[in-house]
């Protein structure tokens, strides 16, 4: 599966979008990212009991081998630190970059397939995630996946099936002489549920 000519965010929106759309309820519900900005506190909390932190992830959802790999990873303080640093970047430098791109009129031109969990709060607070991404990209498709916050870990089969379908639809776009508009329309119809 080659997704090199596409973009597939999962359970997220451009962070620059959040403050302009959020009300007090949404901000209160999204305090976790703000806590993650604090130096060392989130790492200490997660490292104290990583399995409790990721309690919704189970081996029957993602397979024994993948679950064992994840448990090894989340019990590594270095991995937890890098995960938290990714959140911190999303709330700081990434947001700044998004705002600069927005001000310059830059948009994602590659086909974009968005996924979000149907049992988390992204859609509740911000509406249809595809509409959010359409402010940032020109060719957006996507759908919710039956999962909690950890889409890939909680429903890997549905996510993999969606990515394979999307890949099959966008691969012709990368071929020399590919018919971009027609294939893009087909990918949109196939993945917009």
Describe this structure in words.
It is globular, with a radius of gyration of 18 Å. The chain has a two-stranded parallel sheet. Helix 4 packs across helix 8 (77-91). The protein has helices at 17-21, 24-29, 31-36, 41-48, 50-53, 59-62, 64-74, 77-91, 93-103, 122-126, 129-134, 151-154, 156-174, 180-191, and strands spanning 112-117, 140-145. The protein contains 14 helices and two strands; from the N terminus they run αααααααααβααβααα.
Count of beta strands: 2
Helix content: 55-70%
Beta percentage is: 5-15%
Strand order of the largest sheet: 1-2
Distance between the termini: 21 Å
Average pLDDT: 79
Using the CA coordinates, give the radius of gyration.
18 Å
Q: How would you characterize the largest beta sheet?
A: 2 strands, parallel
How do the SSEs run, as a string of H and E?
HHHHHHHHHEHHEHHH
| Helix-strand category | mainly alpha
Residue windows where pLDDT falls under 50 for at least 5 positions: 177-193
Basic shape: globular
Question: What is the count of DSSP helices, taking H or I runs of 4+ residues?
Answer: 14
């Amino acid at each position: 599966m080659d997704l090199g000519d596409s973009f597939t965010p999962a359970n997220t929106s451009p962070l620059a979008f959040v403050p302009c759309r959020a009300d007090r309820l949404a901000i209160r519900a999204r305090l976790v990212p703000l806590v993650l900005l604090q130096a060392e506190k989130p790492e200490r909390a997660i490292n104290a009991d990583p399995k409790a932190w990721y309690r919704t992830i189970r081996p029957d959802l993602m397979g024994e081998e993948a679950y064992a790999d994840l448990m090894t990873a989340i019990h590594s303080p270095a991995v937890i630190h890098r995960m938290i640093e990714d959140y911190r970047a999303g709330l700081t430098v990434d947001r700044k970059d998004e705002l600069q791109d927005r001000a310059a009129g830059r948009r994602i031109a590659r086909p974009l397939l968005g996924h979000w969990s149907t049992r988390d709060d992204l859609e509740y607070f911000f509406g249809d995630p595809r509409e959010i991404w359409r402010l940032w990209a020109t060719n957006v498709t996507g759908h919710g996946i039956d999962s909690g916050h950890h889409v890939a870990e909680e429903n890997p089969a549905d996510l993999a099936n969606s990515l394979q379908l999307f890949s099959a639809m966008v691969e012709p776009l990368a071929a020399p002489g590919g018919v971009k508009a027609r294939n893009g329309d087909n990918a949109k119809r196939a993945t917009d549920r």
